[in-house]
Amino acid sequence: MTSTPEEFDNNKIPIKKLWQVITASSVGTVIEWYDFYIFGSLSSIISLSFFPKDDPTAAFISTLAAFGAGFVARPFGGILFGKLGDQMGRKFTFLLTLILMGGSTFAIAFIPSYTQIGLWAPAALLLLRILQGMALGGEYGGAATYVAEYSPDAQRGKYTSYIQTTATLGFFFSILVILSCQFSLGEEAFKEWGWRVPFGLSGILVVVSYFIRKNMHESPLFARLRKEGKLSENPLKEAFASKSNRRLMLIAMFGAIVGQGVVWHTGQFYAQIFINKILKVDFTTTNLVIAVSLVIGTPLFVYFGSLSDKIGRKKIMMTGMACAALFYYPLFYWMSEIVSNEGNQVGEVIYLSMSGKVQLAFICTLLVTFAALAYGPIAAFLVELFPTNIRYTSLSVPYHFANGVFGGCAPFVATYLGTVTHSNFAGIFYPISLAALTFVVGVIYLPETKGRALSEK
Q1: The dihedral of CA 118, 119, 120, 126: what is its sign?
Q2: CA 332 to CA 79: how far, in whole Å?
Q3: Half-sphere exposure (CA, 13 Å, Cβ side) for 71?
């Protein structure tokens, strides 16, 4: 039986009910991340369908730019859906973002190629990618807020960290579906038309997730505010009108989220691009290496989220930033050396020995570990930082601006820097510098929020 808003105490919620909340939130969020990241996982293949084939490098960079456009759109989705989430409820916004994301992803499967409709093909791709970004801008803040408002104060890091695994699980799921389709259809058929199947699968997934989320209850904390007439009339205006709240959003952005964004995307997406496109390792090996690192590394998001309940959010997040700043260059250089020593080149593609594959998987697992340190506790930290009546907006705007502009564009910026400088390692200094900057700002200004009760005002 669900508690009424007046009775609700997040520190006394039955564990069965809490797991129902986590499961319902996580399943939908994994599917949304799958939808969002299937684009990045297939960027090297779909670039030749939607852009001219006479310059494969330019086509790939253009596809990464479209990939980045989805991230740039995330802050606008955060503003729009943050406002809806604070005014109309977490559940309503959950369903809306799910439908928008799933519908956009499904539609990508049916866009004609560049050879069929010319520039309309990349234009349609860009539009749908922007819609994906806006949907994700509303999704994460809602999921983190919803789970956090049910979680006990002393274990919020643990329970919200399950939401933190969804991005990596969505990425892993995208790789698994891609490899399955490639194996079933054959490499040539997959490159020609089979890449559309993972996008089309989204239509089925979104229907399943819709019915799971449809039966969710509204967050009791939000329901109580609505019943008492304490909801914000204009969450966006209120979030920025308060000097103290503006300061918290800026501190959260430059003292945590910017670094977290580049560390997560570099450790998973740029690592994939670096191995496949820059080091020329074959597509299947690249994705298997990344998949293995995600399987090993994903439980660490929950471990570090839980650990933050004991020793604090700040220490763990700052450790992740420091590790990235210190070890990215030697680790990416080590990957290059492994490919040089353990690779066998056939045409323009390099195939690795088993020893080389294992070594790359080990390095990529370290990269995922840095991401888990930076990302595991951040949902609990952000939710604890802002009051309930403007929480969705206050969390979503800085999170999606920093992740969209700095984190999501990291693969594009790093690849572009490597192309213009003709250096395999020039791109890695972009995430290194931002991780270092976030570490400095975070150490000086970031507050500790461990164990805080969720305030209404």
Answers
A1: positive
A2: 36
A3: 26
Give residue 8's pLDDT band: very low, low, confident or very high (50, 70, 90). Answer: low
Q: Which CATH superfamily is domain 15-215+223-445 in?
A: MFS general substrate transporter like domains (1.20.1250.20)
Could you tell me if 161 and 380 are in contact, meaning their C-beta atoms sit under 8 angstroms apart?
Answer: yes
What is residue 4's predicted lDDT score, i.e. its pLDDT? 47
Give the span between the Cα atoms of 181 and 186, in whole angstroms: 8
In the DSSP assignment, the letter for residue 266 is: I
Six-digit token string for 164:
């933190």
Q: How far is CA 156 from CA 355, 380, 436, in A?
A: 41, 6, 27
State yes or no: pLDDT of 446 exceeds 90: yes
At 99-128, the pLDDT tens digits run: 888 888 889 889 998 888 888 888 888 888
d(CA 282, CA 289): 11
Q: Which of 421, 300, 408, 445 is nearest to 39 (CA)?
A: 408
Picking from 193, 62, 198, the residue whose alpha carbon sits closest to that of residue 119 is 62
Which CA distances in Å does 389 have to 88, 299, 392?
Answer: 11, 32, 8
Torsion 428-368-318-334 (CA) sign:
negative
Ramachandran class of 87: left when φ > 0, alpha when ψ lies in -120 to 50, beta otherwise: alpha
Q: Dihedral through CA 168, CA 169, CA 174, CA 180, nearest 10?
A: 130
Does residue 376 register a pLDDT over 90? yes
Whether the Cβ atoms of residue 155 and residue 55 lie closer than 8 Å to each other:
no
Token pair 């807020």 is found at 145
- Give the residue with greater pLDDT, 344 vs 91: 344
d(CA 53, CA 298): 37
| E-assigned strand segments in 362-405 | none
Query: Which residue do the tokens 């164990």 mark?
Result: 451
* Exposed e or buried b per residue across 85-111, where buried means at least 16 C-beta atoms within 10 angstroms of its C-beta: bbbbbbbebbbbbbebbbbbbbbbbeb
- The pLDDT tens digits of the residues spanning 71-85 come to 778 788 878 887 777
Please tell me the least confidently modeled range out of 148-152, 175-179, 243-247, 328-332: 148-152
Supply the pLDDT for residue 204.
84
Q: What is the SS3 assignment for 345?
A: strand
* Closest alpha carbon to 74 in 33, 30, 131: 131
Q: Name which residue leads in pLDDT, 186 or 145.
A: 186
- Separation CA 429–CA 431 (nearest Å): 6
Give the confidence band of 455 by pLDDT, cuts at 50, 70, 90.
Answer: low
In this structure, what token pair is assigned to residue 335? 């990957």
